[in-house]
C-alpha cells in the first residue's frame, strides 16, 4: 500500500474531497462523497457513463463548483478557487490542443501564461517533448499529427509546468486498441518517472486495472468501491462491482449455517466465509468463471475433489482466442459460465457433453442479495 | 465528399443563382457597359472624363473611407454581440438572434426614417438631452458623418454577427477549459484563443460587409451630409440631374470593378482549407 508523507503526525493528501456533491436542478450527478488521493498515487475513477466520474473530475479541475463540500489541495481549501489558480494539469479526451498553434507553442502555452522567460520556456518545452518522444515535431500543427501524437502533445503540455496533480479524462478514448495499450504503458512510465499524482478517468476496466494503484469504482453518482485492483476483483462488496470488474457467476441462496449456503433447488454450497450475513438471510454467491473446473463425467478418474461440485451438460462453447467460454447447464437448470485456457477444437467440450463442474470454497465471495 | 460529388452539389446549389445572373443581371450589366462606351461611335471618352474629374476622385475616396470605417465599426460592435450570443444557451441564443436580425429584415428606407426621428434636431436624443439639462440642445446628428455611420453600421452589424458567431461556436469548449486550467487569465484566453480562432469568420464577414457597403446609396442619400457623396450617389447624380448616361455608366463599371477586386480574394480565401 501507499504510505502518505507524514507531516508532524498529519497525513498530507495530494487532494482530499470532503462531503463533495453536485446537483443540477432535480438531478443528482454526485451524492456527497469523501475521497482522498495520496501523493504520487495513480487513482482511477472507473464507472459506466453517467456514474459521476467526470463530474468528480470537473469538480477537482474547477470547471464547475460543488453544491456542497470542500476540496483540499495539499491541505489548502480550493473549493471556490478559479481553475487557473489551482495549478492542476489536465489531459482531455479530444486533446483540446490549440489548432492554430504549432506543437512548440502549444506546449509553451502554460509557461507563457506564467510569464516565464523565453530561455526557460525553450528548455522546459524541449525537455517535455523529449519525455513524450516528440522532439523534432516542434513546428508541426496539431492537424499534421496522428491521434496518438496529438495526445502526447496534450501530455507534454501538462507535464511541462510540473502540476501537483494531473487529471486525465479518458485520454485514450479516441485511440484504437493497440495504440491505447502502448500509450497506457507510456503514461505508466511517465507517472513512475515524474512521481506526480494522477487521477485518471476511464470506463474501460482493463485500462483501469493495468494502470492504477487504486481504483474508485463509481455507480449512479456514488462510490461503489474504492480499493486496489486486487481488492475489487477478489473482494467485491456488491453485485455491481462483481459484475463490472470481470465476469461472474452469481448463485442465489440462503445462509443455513456458518460458511454454508443452500440454494432454492437444494444445492449446498461451502463458501469462504459468511461473516456479516445472519443465518437465514438471502445472499448471492460469487464464483469467477476462470475458477470453476470442468471434468467430463465419462473421464475414468476424478483428478480432484473440491468443496463444491455439481453435475450438468455443456450448453454452449465459444472460442474467443486465448480463452474459451463454456456455458454449462447444471441439472437444476442453472447456467454456469466457465472460462478456460483455449485448446484445439478437437479437445474442446462439445455441446451436450455430460460434465461435472467444481470450485473451491476459497474462490467464493458471499454478497448481499 | 469526393471532388466530383462536391462539384455536382455546388452546381445544384448554384444553379438558381446562375440562372438569375444570366437572365437578369448579365443583360443589364452588358447594357450598362455598352452605354459607357457608346457615344456617337465607340469611345472611352466617358471613362476618360470620369477618371480625370476631381468630383469622381473625391467620391471614390469618400466611398472607400466610409465603407472601411463603417465596416470596422460594425466589426467591433458585431464581435461584441457575437461573443455575447456565443455564451448563451442555445434556446436563448435563438431568441436573441431574432432580435439581431429584426432590423436586418426591415426596409432600409424605414430604418433611415426611424433614424431621422431618433437623431434629428428635434429628435428623441436631442429632446432627452434638452430635458436633462433643462436647456435647448440641438446637436447635429444627421446629414453628416455621424448619421451616415449610424445608418451604415445598423445595416452591417447583423451581417457580420452571423459569420463571426459561426466561427465562435465552432471553437471546442474544451480548448477554453484547457487554457483556463493551464493558468491563462480571461484576457490571455481572449487574445490567444478567441481572436485567432474566430479570424476566418471575422475576415469573411468583414470583406462581405465592406464590399456591400461600397455600393451604399440610400443611407448616404438620406442620412449623410452633402460631403458624404459616395459613388452610387454620383451615378444617380449623372443619371438624373445631368442626364449624362455614358458617364453614369462608366462610374458604375468602375465601381463594379472595385467590388470584384475586393470580393475575389475574399471568396478565394474563404475556400482555403485549414
From TrEMBL, chain A:
Involved in beta-(1-->2)glucan export. Transmembrane domains (TMD) form a pore in the inner membrane and the ATP-binding domain (NBD) is responsible for energy generation. Keywords: ATP-binding, Nucleotide-binding, Transport. PANTHER family: SPERMIDINE/PUTRESCINE IMPORT ATP-BINDING PROTEIN POTA, SPERMIDINE_PUTRESCINE IMPORT ATP-BINDING PROTEIN POTA. One of its GO terms (molecular function) is ATP hydrolysis activity. Residues 15-245 form the ABC transporter domain. Signal peptide: none annotated. GO terms for cellular component: ATP-binding cassette (ABC) transporter complex. It comes from the Bacteria. Pfam families: ABC_tran, TOBE_2. The keyword Ribosomal protein does not apply. This is Spermidine/putrescine ABC transporter ATP-binding protein. GO terms for biological process: quaternary ammonium group transport. Belongs to the ABC transporter superfamily.
TrEMBL record, chain B:
It is a multi-pass membrane protein. Residues 60-266 form the ABC transmembrane type-1 domain. InterPro entries: MetI-like, MetI-like_sf. It is found in: Cell membrane. Belongs to the binding-protein-dependent transport system permease family. CysTW subfamily. The keyword Membrane applies. The keyword Transmembrane applies. One of its GO terms (biological process) is transmembrane transport. This is Spermidine/putrescine ABC transporter permease. The chain crosses the membrane at residues 12-34, 63-83, 95-119, 157-179, 199-223, 248-269. GO terms for cellular component: plasma membrane. Keywords: Cell membrane, Membrane, Transmembrane, Transmembrane helix, Transport.
Amino acid at each position: 500500500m501507499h504510505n502518505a508523507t507524514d507531516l508532524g503526525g498529519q497525513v498530507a493528501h495530494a487532494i482530499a474531497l470532503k462531503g463533495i456533491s453536485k446537483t443540477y436542478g432535480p438531478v443528482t450527478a454526485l451524492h456527497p462523497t469523501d475521497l482522498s488521493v495520496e501523493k504520487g498515487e495513480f487513482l482511477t475513477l472507473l464507472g459506466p457513463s453517467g456514474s459521476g466520474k467526470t463530474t468528480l473530475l470537473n469538480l477537482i479541475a474547477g470547471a464547475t463548483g460543488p453544491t456542497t463540500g470542500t476540496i483540499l489541495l495539499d491541505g489548502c481549501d480550493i473549493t471556490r478557487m478559479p481553475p487557473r489558480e489551482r495549478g492542476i494539469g489536465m489531459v482531455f479526451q479530444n486533446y483540446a490542443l490549440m489548432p492554430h498553434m504549432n506543437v512548440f507553442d502549444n506546449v509553451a502555452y502554460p509557461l507563457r501564461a506564467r510569464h516565464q522567460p523565453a530561455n526557460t520556456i525553450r528548455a522546459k518545452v524541449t525537455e517535455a517533448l523529449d519525455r513524450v518522444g516528440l522532439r523534432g515535431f516542434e513546428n508541426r500543427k496539431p492537424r499534421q499529427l496522428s491521434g496518438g501524437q496529438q495526445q502526447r502533445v496534450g501530455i507534454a503540455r501538462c507535464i511541462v509546468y510540473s502540476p501537483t496533480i494531473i487529471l486525465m479524462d479518458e485520454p485514450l478514448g479516441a485511440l484504437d486498441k493497440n495504440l491505447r495499450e502502448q500509450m497506457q504503458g507510456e503514461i505508466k512510465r511517465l507517472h513512475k518517472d515524474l512521481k506526480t499524482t494522477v487521477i485518471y478517468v476511464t470506463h474501460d476496466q482493463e485500462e483501469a486495472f493495468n494502470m492504477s494503484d487504486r481504483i474508485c469504482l463509481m455507480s449512479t453518482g456514488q462510490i461503489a468501491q474504492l480499493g486496489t485492483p486486487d481488492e475489487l476483483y477478489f473482494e467485491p462488496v456488491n453485485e455491481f462491482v462483481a459484475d463490472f470488474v470481470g465476469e461472474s457467476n452469481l448463485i442465489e441462496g440462503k445462509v443455513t449455517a456458518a460458511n454454508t449456503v443452500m440454494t432454492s433447488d437444494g444445492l449446498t454450497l461451502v463458501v469462504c466465509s459468511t461473516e456479516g450475513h445472519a443465518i437465514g438471510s438471502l445472499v448471492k454467491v460469487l464464483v469467477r468463471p476462470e475458477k470453476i473446473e470442468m471434468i467430463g463425467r465419462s473421464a475414468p478418474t476424478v483428478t480432484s475433489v473440491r468443496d463444491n461440485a455439481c453435475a450438468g451438460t455443456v450448453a454452449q462453447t465459444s472460442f474467443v482466442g486465448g480463452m474459451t467460454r463454456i456455458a454449462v447447464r447444471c441439472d437444476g437448470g442453472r447456467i454456469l459460465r466457465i472460462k478456460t485456457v483455449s485448446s484445439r477444437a478437437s479437445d474442446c467440450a462439445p455441446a451436450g457433453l455430460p460434465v461435472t463442474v467444481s470450485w473451491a470454497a476459497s474462490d467464493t465471495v458471499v454478497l448481499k442479495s | 465528399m469526393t471532388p466530383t460529388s462536391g462539384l455536382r452539389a455546388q452546381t445544384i446549389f448554384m444553379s438558381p443563382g446562375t440562372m438569375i445572373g444570366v437572365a437578369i443581371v448579365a443583360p443589364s450589366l452588358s447594357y450598362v457597359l455598352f452605354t459607357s462606351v457608346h457615344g456617337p461611335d465607340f469611345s472611352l471618352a466617358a471613362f476618360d472624363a470620369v477618371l480625370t474629374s476631381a468630383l469622381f476622385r473625391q467620391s471614390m475616396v469618400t466611398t472607400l473611407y466610409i465603407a472601411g470605417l463603417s465596416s470596422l465599426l460594425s466589426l467591433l460592435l458585431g464581435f461584441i454581440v457575437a461573443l455575447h450570443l456565443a455564451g448563451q444557451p442555445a434556446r436563448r441564443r435563438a431568441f436573441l438572434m431574432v432580435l439581431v436580425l429584426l432590423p436586418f429584415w426591415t426596409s432600409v428606407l424605414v430604418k433611415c426614417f426611424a433614424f431621422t426621428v431618433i437623431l434629428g434636431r428635434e429628435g428623441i436624443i436631442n429632446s432627452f438631452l434638452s430635458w436633462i439639462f433643462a436647456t435647448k440642445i440641438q446637436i447635429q446628428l444627421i446629414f453628416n458623418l455621424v448619421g451616415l455611420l449610424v445608418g451604415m453600421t445598423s445595416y452591417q452589424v447583423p451581417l457580420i454577427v452571423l459569420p463571426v458567431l459561426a466561427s465562435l461556436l465552432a471553437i471546442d469548449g474544451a480548448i477554453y477549459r484547457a487554457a483556463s486550467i493551464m493558468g491563462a487569465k480571461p484576457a490571455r484566453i481572449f487574445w490567444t484563443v478567441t481572436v485567432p480562432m474566430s479570424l476566418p469568420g471575422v475576415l469573411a464577414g468583414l470583406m462581405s460587409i465592406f464590399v456591400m457597403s461600397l455600393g451604399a446609396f440610400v443611407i448616404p442619400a438620406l442620412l449623410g451630409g452633402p460631403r458624404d457623396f459616395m459613388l452610387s450617389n454620383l451615378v444617380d447624380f449623372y443619371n438624373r440631374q445631368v442626364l449624362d448616361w455614358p458617364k453614369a455608366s462608366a462610374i458604375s463599371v468602375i465601381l463594379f470593378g472595385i467590388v470584384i477586386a475586393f470580393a475575389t480574394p475574399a471568396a478565394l480565401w474563404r475556400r482555403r482549407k485549414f
